[in-house]
Amino acid sequence: MKTISKKLSLLFSALIAVLFSTTVATAQNTASKIKNVVLVHGAFVDGSGWKGVYDILTKKGYHVTIAQIPLTSLQDDAAVVKKALDRQDGAAVLVGHSWGGTVITEVSAHPKVASLVYVTAFQPDNGEATTKWLGTAPALPENGILPPDKDGLVYYDREKFHKGFAADLSHEQAIFMADAQKPIVAASFGTPVTAAAWHNKPSFGIVPTADKSINPVILRNMYQRSGAAITEIKGASHAVFVSHPKEVANVIIAASK
């Protein structure tokens, strides 16, 4: 009886040890995973386009904030994102689409930014403006970015919006986006960034291979220069954050680990 009792005691102790180590490992994993995500839209759209990505991430337990930037200047846009970061209760993954990439770069030194995700987005270095990269590869014929109007605002050509911006969405959805578009102040593109913390923080880049608004050659060159982890989404358009929310969310989840 003593032998059986001793064996049961040892078995119980071993079970407790396994349960304890599993609990510790789970706690450590939870503690190391970033739960906050801040999403930043680009030019010609607003934050509503992130709805699909938002739904996926929130269902997985992430706290997601969508920054509605005014598109009036790099400084104004960056100020909105900084305020969103200030409100987070800890480290965050900062995500930008298109022009939003320049904005998140400007804010990248914020102490709560743990990693950066560039969704077919500009990734300039210190002292570089967005226009520096726009001229490094030919504009594609479907591109519909118009010259500034008399007020210095840049719009996207309604007639080119479907093929140039959102070819993998329905025509009806693309036209709605075109009619709901937010213009951007042209001078924003010429403003250089003052911080580029992707030099010392992990960065991830998404390249939609059928993007007609930013030549994919430009995207690959920026992301290769920075050493970003690159994900290519075959056949995706510039509106990849709308048309491929699962793939975009998966990259954000990878950045949170």
From TrEMBL:
Q: What lineage does UniProt assign to this protein's organism?
A: Bacteria, Pseudomonadati, Bacteroidota, Chitinophagia, Chitinophagales
Name any one GO molecular function.
Answer: hydrolase activity
Q: Which Gene3D superfamilies match?
A: alpha/beta hydrolase (3.40.50.1820)
What PANTHER family would the database entry show?
AB HYDROLASE-1 DOMAIN-CONTAINING PROTEIN-RELATED (PTHR37017), ESTERASE_LIPASE_THIOESTERASE DOMAIN-CONTAINING PROTEIN (PTHR37017:SF11)
Which protein, by its recorded name, is this? Alpha/beta hydrolase
> Which first-to-last residue range defines the signal peptide?
1-27
Any idea where the AB hydrolase-1 domain is? 37-250
Q: Name one Pfam family in it.
A: Abhydrolase_6
Q: Does the keyword Cell membrane apply?
A: no
List UniProt keywords, sorted A-Z: Hydrolase, Signal
* Organism domain of life: Bacteria
